[in-house]
Write a structure and sequence with these properties.
single chain, about 350 residues, alpha/beta, Rossmann fold, six-stranded parallel sheet, about 40% helix
């Protein structure tokens, strides 16, 4: 496919996970800066819609509900017909799915760019050859943007919120007895699969330590599935944390992360949201690779990961050992916290070293 100087209507077909959609935002920015006058829409699953809301580089968010409204042949047909009416002239396929690539073809989008996996190569007018070596997801997506002539130098992912969410969080913190001058530490204990979670008893011990030594106010964050985890951690503590798990949407969660002095989390979507909002983050990694899916860009973060002799990344969901996460001790985290605390003032951390220098 010959790259045009300008496309008038561009559809970006997104991936399915919160963190991965965040990783795509540098590409969205790069596409907007290259095609300044284009109408740009993003096609995304319902659970990831909030990641892209308020993004000034996007003109429209199109929700593709493949498990609901667009399930089955007739649901997909209705979706295809709706896309046809929008007359997109370029589809940028971040998702590697054959079905979604075929869907854009049936929708009459003449130009289709994405990685040329074996099955869908024939459907792409602008195939991008798969990479020989794995890259961080931010760079992985930006390679597609580069193939379209975009400037891929901006690496920071973006998540936008409004003053409404900030005000809401301030009100909720106030109700919990947390003042603006308090040292606020948010712990995010959840994760989309068990091997990525740090032991709950460790979070409880860590939170008690931070309250005792630093006078911190501790908030436990997370989604509705994390509410039981938060309650168990609270029961394991001497001190009384505030539980926000299950009480915020993603935008409000982002406002909480931005307000926090520190965020301590495993590898998860909320951790990446915290990085995107400029929080000081301590990220705990076990089976996943921070060089592929860790915090990225010029954020205020530190990564703790221990070598326990296992291959990383590891996607063994049946692992009952979790020794990679158990290897990270409370003392490991408190040492990193203390180091950052001594060099920080009101979340302003000066050291912004690259990820390769951040792994402990």
């Amino acid at each position: 496919m010959k790259i045009k100087a300008s496309y008038k209507r561009i559809l970006i077909v997104e991936v399915n996970w919160l963190g991965d959609v965040l990783f795509s935002t540098p590409l969205i920015r790069a596409v907007r800066e290259k095609f300044k006058d284009a109408y740009i829409a993003c096609m995304v699953v319902p659970r990831c819609r909030e990641i892209l809301e308020y993004n000034p580089r996007i003109d429209e968010i199109i929700v593709y509900d493949e498990k609901g409204e667009h399930r089955g042949i007739w649901g997909k047909l209705r979706f295809i017909l709706s896309l046809r009416k929008k007359r997109f002239d370029l589809a940028i396929l971040l998702h590697r799915s054959f079905t979604r690539t075929f869907l854009t073809r049936l929708s009459g989008i003449k130009n289709r760019a994405g990685y040329a996996t074996e099955k869908r190569r024939v459907l792409l007018t602008h195939p991008v050859e798969p990479l020989d070596a794995p890259l961080h997801k931010v760079e992985y997506f930006l390679k597609i943007a580069e193939s379209l002539g975009c400037d891929a130098s901006f690496k920071n992912y973006e998540f936008f919120i409004s003053d409404r969410e900030k005000k809401h969080i301030e009100e909720e913190l106030s109700k919990s007895g947390i003042k603006k001058e308090d040292l606020l530490v948010v712990i995010n204990p959840g994760g989309n699969w068990l091997p990525k979670r740090w032991p709950e008893e460790n979070f409880a011990k860590l939170a008690d330590f931070l309250v005792a030594k630093y006078g911190a106010k501790v908030v436990i964050s997370g989604g509705k599935p994390d509410m039981e985890i938060a309650i168990r951690i609270k029961k394991g503590m001497r001190e009384v944390p505030a539980i926000f798990a299950g009480k915020t949407n993603l935008k409000e969660l982002a406002a909480l992360m931005e307000r926090a002095d520190f965020v301590i989390s495993g590898d998860s979507g909320p951790m990446h949201i915290a990085v995107a909002r400029g929080a000081s983050v301590i990220a705990l990694f076990g089976p996943t690779s921070p060089r592929l899916t860790g915090p990225y860009g010029n954020g205020n973060y530190r990564i703790i990961q221990k070598d326990v002799g296992c291959e990383v990344p590891c996607y063994d969901l049946t692992c009952g050992n979790y020794r990679c996460m158990k290897a990270i001790t409370v003392d490991d985290v408190t040492r990193v916290f203390d180091k950052i605390y001594k060099n920080a003032k009101n979340r302003q951390i000066q050291d912004k070293t690259h990820i390769s220098d951040n792994v402990i």
